Amino acid sequence: MSENCNHDCSSCGEACASRDPKSFIEKPNEKSTIKKVIGVISGKGGVGKSMISSMLAANFQKKGYNTAVLDADITGPSIPKAFGITERARGDESGIYPVYSKTGIQTMSVNLLLDDATDPVIWRGPVIAGTVKQFWQDVIWTDVDYMFVDMPPGTGDVALTVFQSIPVDGIVIVTSPQELVSMIVAKAVKMAQMMNVPIIGIIENMSYVECPDCGKHIEVFGKSHLAEVAAVYKLPILGQIPMTPAIAAASDAGDVESLDVDWFDKAIEAIVDATKE
Ligand SMILES: Nc1ncnc2c1ncn2[C@@H]1O[C@H](COP(=O)(O)OP(=O)(O)OP(=O)(O)O)[C@@H](O)[C@H]1O
């Protein structure tokens, strides 16, 4: 226990013997059914975490799982954009209803509640964290096999709230092939360990560009350090996703579900395997 302990574990990330990270877990809406929750995290912003969350969800849905995405990236919400969702969420006295994507993925994001999706969310940490909790407690999620939580980048306040209040079954770490990766993965790994959440593996985004003429893989960010980092932390590599105009175009068009790719087959297998009863 820290000598500065004020006995309020809800605002503290210290790994101390007297705290149980799961003791703040909140119940979802009584009308919700959610079987498994997967957190998608990155140690820093700009690695394409939201894109990976959307593509993972789209591929789970294609495999026949009822899938949902809870956009916990409150100040940088990009899930509705990736799925081309422009309508607002509705609610009644029972709760708030998620908005369904073209292929039936249930989504909830702060952008579905704002009058204008371009309005910035200028809120302090506790309000942001409270919103994420509401997405869990007040939204009516129907028959969800896999819910993906698109976490805010980094290891701050909101990430802490998600781990403390939502029963996350496992996390997937998203990285990009840059020098900083080992420090960033270390932070994410330590946070998951402190919160007692199993890490299912790492997905590297923007791993390479494939030459359209000869098929050669060009490592634009330099040589990937993923294998070394994965070995240090004994984490499976679940996929290496290329940087490709097809992803950028699908994201811009709000049509991520139309991407027909097999990049996530290993990740799907590992997530299903890690979360089976
Ligand atoms: N592999 C890729 N190839 C091409 N474009 C990509 C790829 N991954 C992401 N992008 C593009 O990069 C932009 C940012 O992606 P995204 O919103 O997922 O980032 P992010 O990491 O979630 O950001 P933040 O971490 O700050 O929330 C999007 O426009 C997306 O289309």
Task: Work out the strand percent.
Answer: 15-25%
- Poorly predicted parts: none
Tell me the number of helical segments per DSSP (H or I, 4 or more residues long). 8
Mean pLDDT: 87
Which molecules are bound in this entry? adenosine-5'-triphosphate
Number of β-strand runs: 12
Rg, please?
A: 18 Å
Percent range for helical residues? Answer: 25-40%
Question: N- to C-terminal separation?
Answer: 34 Å
Shape: globular
Determine the CATH topology.
Rossmann fold
Structural class of the helix and strand makeup?
alpha/beta
Question: Could you say what the CATH architecture is?
Answer: 3-Layer(aba) Sandwich
For this entry, what is the oligomeric state of its chains?
Answer: single chain
When the domains are counted, the total is: 1
> What's the name of the CATH homologous superfamily?
P-loop containing nucleotide triphosphate hydrolases
Strand order of the largest sheet: 5-6-2-7-1-8-9-12
Largest sheet: 8 strands, mixed
GO molecular function, one term: 4 iron, 4 sulfur cluster binding
Subunit structure: Homodimer.
Protein name: Iron-sulfur cluster carrier protein
Organism: Butyribacter intestini
